[in-house]
Structure formats: C-alpha cells, structure tokens
Design goal:
single chain, alpha+beta, 4-stranded mixed sheet, globular
Length: about 190
C-alpha cells in the first residue's frame, strides 16, 4: 500500500475525512469541508439524491442551495435563465441584478437537504432555495426582518432560514450616481 492509502485508511478509522476527498494536489478545495466522516457522507448522499432526482424526474420546486459545491455558479445560471426569458425585452446580462423574496417559514426536515412534507410550488421565473441557516440571528416571520438570537442559548446558535425566491430583475439606474458621461473624445460633467 502507498503511504497516501495508509493515511486515508487511518483517517477513516478515526472518523475524519481524508484530505484528498476535500482538496486536490494543489490544495484547492474540491469538496465541502466537514469535521467528521459521518457528516461528510451524509452530505454526499443528500447531494447525490438532489442531483439524481433533478435528472430523473424534473426540475425541483426548490433547490437545496447548500447542496451545491459552487452555489455562486448555480445562482449565475439563474440570472442567465431569467435574462433569456426576457430576450424580447432585450435585457443585457450586465444590467441584471439578483432579487430575493422570503416566501415561507423555515423548512425543517429530519433529512439533510430535504423539504419535509411541505408542498412547494415552483416559480415561473427564478428558483426557490432552501437549506440556508443563520448564525447568531433568527428571522422574524411576522415582521419580516432579522433579529438577534439570545446570546446565552448556545444550543440554538444556528437557526434555519425561510424558503427564499431568487430571481433577477433589470437594475434600476441610480440617479445619485455620478460618473462622467462621454461623447466622442470629450468628457462631459
């Protein structure tokens, strides 16, 4: 056995995630980082289940955002998709910003990344996302704002964030922004 295999076996015996499962040879993160092998495997199976259902069935009504290794890429594709839906309006991708709307109470499920038994309707534009959480804060659903958590309650330090609609909209020009307008080679102020 090679020394790398011996180290990987020792890591698994000690319930730690082997380094090559999380980082490539150059040290770049290629996977999610978790403290134990059990939580890493649980995340792996939940991620697999989300992608498998998406491929075999249909587009999910809500995406487990933390289930993506690169959620920024997923959100960029959402922005591109909304932009394409407005092709007749001639939206330019550079002129589009994200828009979010909090939809419901927190979705709690025993299963990592799951929606539980709540029926969720897919939006006509954009995507619903779930699986986000807050640290040291909670969402006040009646008032629609963030509020501080009780600092003494260490058992409930992390709070689930509600289901959220992520879409894109045409950015509004900021009337207060000052920038030079150009005409030909002259700069107008």
């Amino acid at each position: 056995m090679t020394p790398q295999i011996v180290v990987a076996i020792e890591n698994m015996y000690n319930q730690r995630v082997p380094g090559p499962w999380m980082y490539d040879a150059t040290g770049v993160e290629i996977s999610w980082v978790t403290p134990s092998l059990g939580s890493w495997m649980k995340g792996l199976t939940a991620r697999y289940r989300q992608l498998k259902n998406w491929i075999e069935r249909d587009r999910p009504a809500s995406f487990w955002l933390t289930g993506f290794i690169r959620p920024q890429g997923f959100l960029t594709s959402v922005k591109q998709e909304v932009n394409r839906q407005h092709a007749a309006d001639k939206w330019a991708l550079d002129d589009v910003d994200y828009s979010t709307t909090i939809l419901k109470e927190e979705i709690r499920s025993q299963e990592l990344g799951g929606l539980g038994d709540k029926p969720i309707k897919a939006p006509s534009q954009g995507v619903n996302v779930h699986g986000l959480f807050l640290e040291g804060a909670s969402w006040n659903s009646k008032g629609g704002f963030l509020e501080e958590s009780d600092a003494k309650d260490l058992k409930n330090l992390y709070k689930d964030f509600p289901l959220m609609l992520v879409t894109a909209e045409l950015a509004k020009a900021d009337p207060n922004a000052r920038g030079p307008a150009t005409k030909g080679k002259e700069t107008l102020e």
